[in-house]
Design a protein that fits this description.
DNA polymerase, domain 1, 2 domains, 11 helices, phosphatase activity (chains A, B), six-stranded parallel β-sheet, elongated, HAD_sf (chains A, B), homodimer, Rossmann fold, alpha/beta
Amino acid sequence: MLKAVFFDIDDTLYDTSGFARLARKAALNVMIDAGLPLSREEAYRLLREIIAEKGSNYDKHFNVLTERVLGEEKPLLIALGMITYHNVKFALLRPFPNTISTLIHLKGKGYRLGAISNGITIKQWEKLIRLGIHHFFDEVVTSEEVNSEKPDIEIFREALRRMGCRPERSVMVGNKFTEDILGAINAGMSAILVNSELSDDERDRIKREGLDVTVVQEIGEIREIL
Amino acid sequence: MLKAVFFDIDDTLYDTSGFARLARKAALNVMIDAGLPLSREEAYRLLREIIAEKGSNYDKHFNVLTERVLGEEKPLLIALGMITYHNVKFALLRPFPNTISTLIHLKGKGYRLGAISNGITIKQWEKLIRLGIHHFFDEVVTSEEVNSEKPDIEIFREALRRMGCRPERSVMVGNKFTEDILGAINAGMSAILVNSELSDDERDRIKREGLDVTVVQEIGEIREIL
């Protein structure tokens, strides 16, 4: 009988937010050295505002930054920022500690593995490849392909359909309570929350509704559960 | 009195075509190893057809390739191809021999330096930065910014205007006879053709019309002319 574990990618399998923060700060430092007239703190604050406003998948944050500060786009500064951002991000990229040993453990136990991610298909595959873990995954399902985003039930159903697996035989592992955990549970799966603290409201809700969710501090603890 | 030398970028300052060919072949090898059912020769022939059809600035050549061969886009193969292409291209990237010493020579002689390129602004700046030569250029003018492509006179006029330089005090260096050489001459500049063989027709035309163009085999020879 098939049994499957699905993983969210960003901030579940690797430290997206931490790497992005370091890469953005490095990019801003290079832009400041090349003439962007802001302090490091001002630059980072403004960039975060722009990212919040435009969304993290927008690909022209640095264009907007130079335009807001200097009244026009500055190609040299933009290109310096983009090169530095990508170089630093790719140089740092690695899975969270214990991720690979956990994936090996699950394969050894006979689980099929999938990824369910809100994001752009090729970019999500690129992350798995650059992290060196794409061979572990039997299916990778993205919101772009399915035209449905977590926590919508549709993206979970499509992942289960592709894997040929029933929801009650499947577990979703993710760091976001609403998107990953509630989404999976609504689709009939059980769930494991990692890298995240529960709020009091969320804790109450789990107890009140009897939700099938386990909370672990880090991904390696999954080896003791599954 | 200001005097200026303008350079084309691709195949003038570095071996775009050679690096792209190596990077594409490396990408296809990785895609074939991961299951693309073509021989290396078939794959390269098909990719070149797609590039000819879609243009070299189109960013989904590998998507089209997998779709044509397998009936649908294959994100794993596409992402493997894109990562390999970029890694190989950036690893190989360097200016043609004698480029940097020529730029230093021209700066020492008091020339202002510019680039005039048909291409996407940020990508052309990215190339100059990754080549390590962006500090040499006082102005970089792209067809995307100016909304005019070489050999149109407009892009040359805009470059001269930004540089504050008269055409008769300016030289254009490039590898394409029509785009770089005729374009510059029509704008009133003189021209130097590098990395290119003249056809008999072109040679006749230069003589018949008395065009102010010098042909050199490699960029380093410019040190003997200017």
